[in-house]
Design a protein that fits this description.
alpha/beta, globular
Length: 383
């Protein structure tokens, strides 16, 4: 990574503040006509090598978008930006999309700009309640949710030879050498804690140590083929691994769009619900363009195009109804069934009570807790 986890945490902890309040849009400069966006792969609609909603945005606003699918792992991305951020330099990115817990840490370092919410009227009107005022960014002061999702398990039933229903199934010796696990500490430790019967938000350091021992047991038994970033989905798709920790939207896309023989499961022990969010790095050159982009994607008719393609959880009110309308309008039985399934899926539209979908939220780590958890997990990743 070029930056140790300890250095990452020390850097985040030393910057002060966070908690800045949004300022008025009048303080934003005029739209410049250029925007650079750093994003994860497969996280926006596309057609024949283009991004239709970006083309629509460019046409309406006259803003040229440099959209790069360059993020694969949250800590790696932080390490990439760290030299410029710590030196008080422009990173060359106007907008980036990172995990909720990373938003929190960027904020603690005072390395993301406060948002101007009166420049985000559509986002303010259409953001679903589940995504408002999150623990990781109170009052959405520094970030706008892009998509949500769940962390669970995925597998190819033709290769495993049986259904997998529990996170503990990833410890099965019969799958030795064919299991993928994640480099993301918060996901790996949280699911392991659930397997041990511990609610992640209530976990103690002793619980974290027990989770580490369970992960070491799995690794030392030769069950894990590799620890992955988002590239786990490629290994699943090609059959290099038979089962893995997984993010819901990746698997839904490969199952329903690509046609891979994959299944996604919220484990019997429970899964994690999360959000990835857009934020503006400090000293970004085009903040007004970034605000226009974020607000544009809270139009339901735009957001449904993204949801229809990426198959992750939308933060936008009205998308579920538009998806249900697609089912009603479909002329072919298979298409109708497809959209009916999607419009009713708790993986895209979670219930108000997360317990009904067996979903859990991440622990709100203190800096000391996060460093201790990360130190424990880094020992798992060491070969």
């Amino acid at each position: 990574m070029g930056l140790s986890a300890a250095a990452f945490l020390a850097a985040c902890g030393g910057g002060g503040g966070g908690g800045s309040k949004p300022g008025p849009s009048s303080s934003l400069p005029p739209i410049a006509g250029n925007l650079s966006v750093a994003q994860w792969p497969l996280y926006i609609d596309r057609s024949h090598g283009t991004f239709p909603t970006i083309l629509a945005f460019q046409k309406e606003f006259g803003i040229k978008v440099n959209y790069q699918e360059i993020i694969n792992d949250n800590l790696e991305w932080f390490a990439k930006l760290y030299p410029q951020l710590s030196a008080g330099q422009d990173t060359s990115w106007d907008l980036m999309c990172v995990a909720d817990w990373v938003i929190h840490r960027f904020d603690l370092g005072s390395w993301i700009e406060p948002l101007h919410w009166d420049a985000l009227p559509t986002a303010n009107a259409n953001m679903l309640p589940a995504f408002r005022d999150p623990v990781y960014d109170p009052n959405n002061a520094h970030s706008v949710p892009w998509q949500g999702g769940t962390t669970g398990i995925a597998y190819n039933p033709k290769l495993t030879g049986r259904k997998l229903t529990a996170f503990a199934d990833l410890w099965d010796p019969k799958l030795a050498g064919h299991v993928g696990m994640m480099t993301e500490m918060v996901d790996s430790m949280s699911l392991t804690l659930l397997m041990l019967g511990v609610e992640p938000q209530q976990a103690t350091l002793d619980d974290a140590k027990r989770a580490q021992q369970k992960l070491l047991e799995q690794r030392n038994a030769g069950i894990v083929r590799k620890y992955y970033g988002q590239d786990y989905i490629d290994a699943l798709s090609t059959g290099d691994i038979w089962a893995s920790m997984a993010w819901s939207g990746d698997v839904f896309y490969h199952k329903y769009v690509v046609g891979d023989d994959l299944e996604f499961v919220v484990p019997d022990e429970g899964g994690m619900i999360w959000a990835s969010a857009d934020a503006i790095p400090n000293l970004a050159a085009h903040p007004a363009d970034a605000h226009a982009f974020m607000d544009f994607y809270f139009r339901p008719e735009i957001a449904v195009q993204v949801t229809d393609w990426v198959l992750y959880m939308t933060p936008v009110k009205g998308v579920q109804e538009l998806m249900a309308q697609k089912a009603q309008d479909a002329k072919q039985t298979a298409t109708k069934k497809y959209y009916e399934t999607l419009s009713q899926s708790p993986m895209l539209f979670p219930p108000a009570n997360l317990a009904d979908a067996n979903l859990h939220e991440y622990k709100a780590y203190s800096e000391d807790e996060f460093q201790r958890y990360e130190d424990l997990f880094q020992q798992v990743l060491e070969s």
